[in-house]
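Morning, I've got a small favour to ask if you have a moment. The fold is given in discrete form, as structure tokens running alongside the sequence. I'd be grateful if you could look everything over and explain what you see. No rush at all, and the record is pasted right below.
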Amino acid sequence: MDLNNITGHIVSSAIAVHTEIGPGALESSYEACMAFELMHRGLRVETQVPMPLRYRGHELTVGYRLDLLVEDRVVVELKAVTKVLPVHHAQILSYLKMGGFRVGLLLNFHVPRMVDGIVRFAR
């Protein structure tokens, strides 16, 4: 499956979850629902994936975790915040760089319309 198909399934899953749950739940609730929805659609999903930091040829475990990794290719960072800040953008860009991933999605569920809470990143 190509990256556009994968991200299309992720976006439509986010819209389905947001329609069902609404904007007021905890981030962990959205994570569980997104994982369920994506697996239901036949995609491979991992949650809370450890992301080591590589520094001077060494892997350092410093506590970074990807919210979702879909098909071993797309990083999904979930938020349930009033406002997405530049630090949230920097976070997902760092994950893409650290893991050598090409595409990531930042999904903020604390919005009236889910389409307003979706940002796609590519490297």
